[in-house]
Predict the 3D structure of the following.
Amino acid sequence: MDGAAIQRVVEALDLVYGSDTSVEQRRQAEATCEQLRNDAEALAYGLYLAEPARGFKPAVRHFGLQLVEHAIRHRWNNNSTALRDSVLAMIFSLKADEQAYIREKLTAILAMIIVRAWPSADWTDLSEQLMRLYSQSAEGREMALSVWRTLGEEMFVYDRDPVATIRKSPLTNGIVGALLPRSVVVELYPTGYRLASDAGAFAQQGKKVVAPVVLEPGNEDGWMLRWAQYASELAGGAAFARSSWHEAQLVAVISTISVFLGWIPIRALVATQIVPRLAAVLLVRGSDQARRLAAEALETVAKRSAASGEDRDTVLRQLAQDTDALSAIAQAYATTLPPAVDDAWEDAAEALAVARTIAQTGANLVTTHWARKKADETTASRALDRPQQLVELLV
């Protein structure tokens, strides 16, 4: 590694962010930074600049992380263990007052590495590592949530990283084992998870195989249940209305849960009691955003495919006949109407959004009931014996 190159880029970054820098100086400084970005040793330079112990300014460390990110995206190789360990070491060494943009960039980089290298024979302890981060501090918990949320977005929401598409089968296998309760995994996949023929080392070319679900000791409950319980804990806290920390944590955990709601098996939704827990969040005072996210999450569940079977029936019952859940939904809807809305909501636009979402959720459930009843009179009647409860909610 060239020490002179390090010094040049540090000086260049001072010029890039300096208030007295001329246009020509800034142009030359940016060219110096770009030259290092395209260097074959950019990854090594990036790790050096980003290392907290070296004492570089936050702007320099952030640039180092940009070099790491660029190298992962454009010059990835399979020798990922050392890189993964370096990034995790940086994350665990962060101080409580670390710049938010440093945390965000480290989170994005770790998610990129996960997409490319996990699960594998060299990486079987991701949940343990993220659980350590999750338990370390409030900031660590937010980072762990962000890692899972980013991974879920790459897998099930956006199409930003082509590697996530290429490795979707093994990644989904890993997510099944990490997020779902162990009892659900054993019940749903007793012989293993079926992988597509392009699943790399997990499959033989041209064939579909059943691979054992990747399970970690100590993660028997699964992350979805852990998040659902944490959301309930935050929503039930007496200090919630007075704490911006509680609000930020609740928003983060519901946002993370929501990313996986369109994918998670119905049986896991039932086992983790996601529906009644989200319904309870609708009544939280002090965070219009958290209540809106909870309403949108419930709508996502209500729009899930109306397939036949007891699993779907159970979720319908949770949404439509669980006394506490239905009462919470009805009460939340009532708070969006005059005159209650003035006292219950800080933002009238958020209240209106929640009202519309709750109404749409009810409409989806009633429609599902009628569709299911037409397909299977006996099963449908067990799912929603009294759909008028939902009709009353709508009116």
About this structure: The chain is about 70% helix and 0% strand. Residues 241-395 form one domain. The beta strands are 193-195, 209-211.
